[in-house]
Amino acid sequence: MISFDEQTQVFHLRNDRFSYVFEVARGRYLLHRYWGRPLHAFRGSAELPALDRAFSPQPEDYENERTFSLDVLPQELSMQGHGDFRIPSLGVVLPDGTDVIDLFYDGYRILRGKPGLQGLPALYAQEDEAETLEVTLRDPRGRLKVVLSYTVFAGDGVLTRSVRIENTGEAPLRLKQAASFCVDFPDHAFDRLSLYGGHAAERSLERCRLLRGIEETASARGASSHQQSPFLALARPETGELAGEVYAFSLIYSGSFSMKTEVEQFGTTRVVAGLNPADFSWQLQPGEVFQTPEVVCVYAADGLNGMSQAFHAAYCKHLLRGKYRHAVRPILVNNWEATYFDFDDEKMDALAACAADLGLELLVLDDGWFGHRNDDNTSLGDWTVNRKKLKGGIEGVAASAHRRGLKFGLWFEPEMVSKDSDLYRAHPDWVLRAPDAPMSFGRHQLVLDLSRPEVQDYIVACVSKILETGVVDYVKWDFNRHLTEAFSAGRTPERQGETKHRYVLGLYAVLERITQAFPDVLFESCSGGGGRFDAAMLYYMPQTWTSDDTDAVCRQAIQTGTSYVFPPLTMGAHVSVVPNHQVGRVTPMQTRAFTAMMGCYGYELDITQLSEEEKQEVRAQVALYKRLRPTLQLGTFTRLLTPFDGTKNETAWMFTSEDAREVAVFYFKTLAEPATPIRRLRLAGLDPDARYTFREYYPAQTLSHDSLGMARQSLAGKTFYGDELMQEGINVEKIDADFTAYLWVLEKEA
Predict the structure, then answer these.
(1) Catalytic residue at 99?
(2) Which residues does the chain have with pLDDT short of 50?
(3) Which residue among 63, 401, 423, 567 is least crowded, i.e. fewest CB within 10 A of its CB?
């Protein structure tokens, strides 16, 4: 998969999905040459242009060679100071205050498998699943060594990159920028895709023509954030869901990040991504090493679905860990929107009894069970049970669930502290706060300084004490405000620029200790919903609460946007009450259920208040989901229509089981329209030579206790070849109501 030609000095990284090529030029510089469809061999048919470009200077050794300038060459590592005026990927301040440094090629090694990254989550692989290339560059004055790491996975369309920086000198250095990668494209004929949003409105797709100059997708919030996702893609303008070229990048990191594109004066494009340099600096002492987070790079020639399926496969096979890595997830009911803070033993017992009756599998007790917390003003940090609410304690609520055959889950927010808490009164210095300056509050809470080992130990001890009882099967780990006044009392003034990154490293250390100590617990991460839905969190917790917005129409967009990077198996998705608590919309129960079936399915409403007819409908939904769950959670996901296209009025998802025998197709239409043509829905990814039979069909609002069989429809029981279903498609019946949802289930003949 990785080769080096000693004669041409060309590195060729290749599998059956792509080739990635760069060369060592003049024995010094790493120049990017090609990334795209797999090549038999690279011979340099398109030479790098050698032109005299005005105002593009030459390094000293090439003063008389005016056609050679770092300002126009495509590079694997970019630095400022020697004439490359584009975005740098590495910035180092030397002891004398200068930021000009040389780094020249010094060798390489090829490893079987993939080494881990110290203190950071990353993809993993066995020796027969991947090869890793490490290329070393050195400062000829002996002050710095940089190792660029590349991993190619056999059969997967992903390439990972990261950078390791070592101070090999005798004096401290200061890093002011340490990006995870740099790549240069020879043109700028791209659309730029990113995922933007806000709380309860996460990960909407934005697609714009790539502009000249610098554009940035970033977070400076100390978290990957609701506002921007650590994802970027460059797609050819003609690229759609099922065809066309796309290059994409997903950063495995949970803190402040930056992903920049620059189209420079001659029309080439540079992409640099990694830690956000706006709030980062790092003192690197002699002998110390700094490791950047890993970025997962995808090249797909088969459109945005091809890109997504490459990410999905890599994250399911090489990122998720533990017992639930390839396991279907339980159907839950969470008490938050059912009771908020107003609950006691009796209410939780009633929820457990009803959940068991409806066929659910997991009861989750959310916020408000600890300290004296009856609202969000108090008690974070004091992780002792509120016996006034729960006289039987956590053990009593868990026993109520367990004796009914349910698993039991519990909410935590361990990274935060309330000012009204015993913890804050004992350790006010444990929070992030600037000295002699007012504090900022979010949701009446402050952020604990996870860069400090004693804070990490406290969190691990508090959470472990509860999990050691053995009564908790599931943990929802929340994070409900971003970092402000990121000053650590445990750090000297010159090292305060390290605080945000050290916070994230501390978080990872805590999560590693807890999740490895309790391997049978299913962990779900949360940050006001999807405010920290990133690949790094999935390394520790195999699913994330996708959004605090549970409205079905909003969720179709949120979940579709999330699917561009993350598989449905990782998305928490629940049915909630109507009118919806976030937007007040009233949607049919079937639409809410079919929308939530895209992910890890559950209910977030007071199920004890449902009518008998509604309970019958829930039983039918649960039974259907249990039948389809392996396909929906473990199969291949394809977007057929998205709410980001055209009129933004339709969404269609398709799931194909791991053995390709079962296919489930969901179609949603938001608003009914008069005099519209019948929608013809073309399927995708089927075997064109195989025969598929329509086994089940659920038209709008029909899933109830007496309609689980095949409804009357012209396709019922009929068989078609895959090529016809993909080319001709199927009709969606006339729609005369808002917020409709349909489902077809097909079975492939053996």
Answers:
(1) no
(2) 703-712
(3) 63
